[in-house]
Amino acid sequence: MMFRVLFITLIGLFVSSAIIFGQDRHILTGTVRAKGDADVQAAIVSVKRTNDGAILSYVTPDSDGRYSVSFSCPDEKVEVSVRGLGLKTLTKQIDVNAGVLDFIIEPESFSLKEVTIKAEKIKQSGDTISYNVASFQSAEDRVIEDVLKKLPGISVLEGGKIIYKGQAVSLTIDGLDLLGGKYAIATKNISPDHIATVEILENHQVIKALQDLVPSDRTTLNLKLKSSSRGIFLCSLGLLGGYNDSTLWNAEGAGMYFGHKSQDIVTAKSNNTGNDLRDELSDKNDEGRALSKYTQALLASPPNLSKNRYYFNRSFCTTANSLVKTSHGNNLTLNAGYLNTDDYRSSNNELSYMLPESSARIINETIQNNITQELIYANLSHRINNHRIYLDSQVQLAGDRSDIITMVNGAKQAFDDKTILAGGGITLIRRSSEKSGYELMMKAKYGNNAHQLKLLSEKPAKQEISQETLSIYGNLTSYRRFNFLGMMIYPSLIYNYSFESLQSGFSGVNTLEDLPYDNDIAFRKINISPSLNASYQSYRWRILLSIPVMYRYMSLLGRENLISHKVIPLPTLDLSHVFSSSLDWHLNYSFITMDKEISTLYDGLIMRNYRTFTWFHPNLTEGLSHAFSSKLNYKDVFKMLFIGASAYYGIGKPKIIYGYNFDGINAETISYETSALSHHLKTGVEASKGFYYKNATLKATIDYIYSDTPYLAQNQETRTSNSVWQLSASLSIEPFARLNLSYSGAFMHSLVRQLSGEPLSPLSVFTNNLHIVLRLPKNWSIGTHMEHYFNNWSTSEKNFFLANANLGFIYKKTRWSLMCNNLFDVKNYVYSSLSNGTGFNNQYQIRPREIMLKLSITL
Amino acid sequence: MKKINLFFVFFLFAGSVFAQDPYSPIPLWSWGEEKILDHSILRVEYTMSFFGASGKNEICTDKRMVEIGENVIKDYSAILEEKEQENYRVAKKGGSPSTGLSMDVYPIELFCFKEGSIRINQRTLMTGPILQYTQSRPDFRWKLQEGQMQVETYLCQKATVSYGGREWVAWYTEDIPVGSGPYKFGGLPGLILQIASQDGSYKWQMTGIDSKKVPIFEKQFMFKKCTSEEARKLVEDMYKHPFKFMRTAGIRTLVKDKNGNLVRPGDNEEALSLFYDPIEKE
Lengths: 859, 282
Prior knowledge:
The complex is a heterodimer of chains A (about 850) and B (about 280). Chain A is mostly beta strands and about 850 residues long. Helix content of chain A is about 5%, strand content about 60%. Chain A contains six helices and 48 strands. In chain A, the strands form five sheets. Chain A has a 26-stranded antiparallel barrel. A five-stranded mixed β-sheet of chain A has the order 8-9-14-15-13. A four-stranded antiparallel β-sheet of chain A has the order 3-2-5-6, with no helix packed on it. The longest helix of chain A has 20 residues, at about 1-20. Chain A is globular and about 115 Å long. At the A-B interface, β3 and β8 of A face β4, β5 and β14 of B.
């Protein structure tokens, strides 16, 4: 009896569980028969949900066309379809419990939505990222710089400096360094039609003798030419004629040759259309200090607009650049250039100096400048770079001259300035074995400058300055890899000698009679820094620690003679960790001294400008500062996504602070010893993303900058803090085949606070730029460029608009453009700026409406 | 085991010197007939990304072409094929063929036959043999998943599968009702347009499709025929002991020292290896 009950119970449980678990499982069987020559084995039978078409199950029939498919579905109906390449699709809606369904299929020609087989936009191989130029290029891009601006991860600053991961890059063409830091000659003249790929080479050790011995954090951007553009003469020409209130011209030509054994670029340009030719001649990687100007003509401060909006110029520039590879693989490079430019500026300024315990000191000035500048330079270098020896020898010569006629509130001033620079250097690196090598380097630079300012008003005055500088910099390093925890430990010796002299004389009405009005001083500085360095490099880590102990000797000879000796350690630490090929992190710490310059050591009065005299209590005390910076970089080249986050914090002890002491609008520069600390913070995130969709590139940055520093005003020490938020974004997209849009916008909010005195209200600036190009049939195009600026400090209109229009036509290798700039014929731009202790309102004259016709030819 | 920084140099009796790694095979210029196996109905181009021989800090990308015929599907490197065809033309005119590739490639070609077998031709290091072996087409147990994604102009659905010791996510489109894809992948109710291993080691992304009818051919090299197990062992050995492999293959090997001199690998020979992470770990 018990067994019977148990048996019935088990049977009952089995049946009920089968009902419970099997209630949504259905089986559909049937046959697929062919009509004509359709292949039943090419068919796929799919069972789908009716509401969203999601496939529940699928099967391929056997060779006889029989199929059986099981599926689960809570609904009452399902959709069953038969598809196949070359078969007509059949779809039927059936009850889930139908059980059997047969199909008869027919052949049908297959229509494919073809996807053009194309090259990848970006690819990565090791530390090299390659951008396919054609994938980012549009018909409107005239020079390679136009394409570089659109590449995700790369930024091009106004003036042409190229930045990758927040770091300046050096540029090569087909791996050869033809131009050094003056690479804008290439980026502003080479057509993107000649470039196949743009390569970013990270951690690029250019010196072959140091490869695998000394890590490098240098980034090189290489322009890789198309093979069809190598070994032939390339040429680009441009000719423009136009009219605003006078005749306008712009003529430019560039001839280029990029061969296996030599590279050459020759350019000649002239314009009065606002194109600043100095951008091409400036060294983008030169951190060197220019010679100080002790007296200056008061200049109208240019606004934060594109320079061709406000630059009233007449410029001429020519350059010649040649690199020859010798039969031994050595490079001989010659770069020479000449620039002549006239520039007219006009503005009405209102300058507010924040003074403690009183209202701001406000100075109103109407300024007109006529500036003439000439610049000439020649560099010759010879470089041997192989796995055993690196020998780089260079000679540089440069001279510049400028004359400025200035009218300030109707009073005339004349300024002229002449400088000659000569320099040279030699670097020898020899690799003696796999684990060792040494470096000897010496560079010398000589500068001679004379400048003077004449006031040609009712109270005439003349300030004359002459100065000489000589600096010698050298370094001896022994690279030897010791097997101590896998590190390379190597000593180095850095030495530096500098000599600066300053003579000044003033003639005119002396207002501060108890002080001398002349200077004849000489300042010598000798630094000797033996250093112990340790570097460690592994699969994921790279660490470089340097501990130089610097001996510094300074002597000042003048009315008062001062001598200083000092020994101070100046450690630096660089640390990098590579989490993956996409993510890396960097940390840097350095302890630095705020070097003393002769420009703050003279005690005779110098007329800085018509309303300011400067002099200092000579003091060889130097400030000290700790600087910390960190960067986190993420890149996914397949998604064309680049993200970088960075933070910088510096805490310093300036020991001496400088400020103005006002008497009416006249001021004298004063200095003051302090024990106060200064703090600087900068943090930001930068992101850029490229899309295959509509050929779009999106870039965005956000930065926060804060400083809190001691500040001297009217002989009183106070503190001032400045906090700035900056946001910017840009988008370039081709929403339709014939439409190209690019937008860039920026927002800045700045607030200056002072411990005492009258605070300045916050400054908010918002700018928008929009380019639209519509490509019409038969190679015609129309375009417009609109600019909007908002400035809450403006005393007149807070919103400001500018617009250009353009009609273009491309015929074979020629481009024609009919342009109208400044359509609304706006005469002045009103803007404001804010910095520690100073507010600035400015009404600046901009270029009027201009009609121009331009022809460009690329061969 | 220490990883080589991917800079081998080998020295032939003829005196030629080449830089090499397994993903940069020497493009050849002579072979027997080009045996036509089928004609394509569809050609699908994929970008394939994978880690190079230095490890996970080196991402390589190959351009793979999958030619789909009625009876045969061929998957090969378009970069290597293009270079070899160019070499063939150059050599025929009496010129010097190029022995280098501008990009890394995945050095195998596959022929998937309708009856269910797969023939694989695999290059080895330098002038090592070209292995040829046959396998059965795997039975993929796909799990159809919720989720849709647009790949180029095609709406795709998601499916996952566990295969070769890795988890794979595939996106297929019903709009192209062919149960094929790159490598050995297939068996879904539509063409696979994107597939990636969840550990990030391998990814194929469709970059082009056309319906050109071209012959699907196999170049008849002097293959070293072997079983798939033998091939697997040989290739694993090649990555883990590259110098030993080359010595076995009759290749005299020299490495470049830091001064650019060619020297014998020396005592480190056995300690040097290449990053080995095959598509199928099991």
